[in-house]
Request: fold
Amino acid sequence: MIEYIRGALAALTPTSATIETQGGVAYLLNISLPTYSALEGRKDACLYVHESIRDDAWVLYGFAGERERSLFRSLIGVSGVGAATAVIILSSLQGDELAAVISSGDVRRLKSIKGIGAKTAERIIVDLRDKIKADADTLFTSTPSRSDAFDEALAALLILGFDKKHSEKALGALFDADPTLRVEAAIKKAMTMM
Reply:
């Protein structure tokens, strides 16, 4: 399973991004408008990936942050909401706004999104309302962006089997104290803190 793809941003449109990795392989990822806005004007990119493997295609979806990917995965878990519809929802209502619409049960607002009917809007609200309340801190709050070194160190700790929440906390303290910390040193220090 692909966690994220990092490389040169070879092409960018409002609906897709092509990232060329160091090995010379280029990946086409479907993206939302918030991800497009985050990538606009950049030469390099790192997108978190959701893979959709079907009989007729292998499609990659890319997200500027893990929270957007988590919300995408929650949306496609709702019966009747496919990946393309989830991208449209994320492009129409972003993060906190979508959380507020679902929490308040605003069916009318969800119905105003292309491809969302009354039944689907109600199903999204019923299926995700409790999840949003329970996971509000992890899905919908924004955190300050970290450096590439932070992201690489976090990815390494997760691969090594450390808990994500504890790893983020340890690395956050380390990088707050020394923003120039190298990846290897950050990993070693974080491992002693957990």
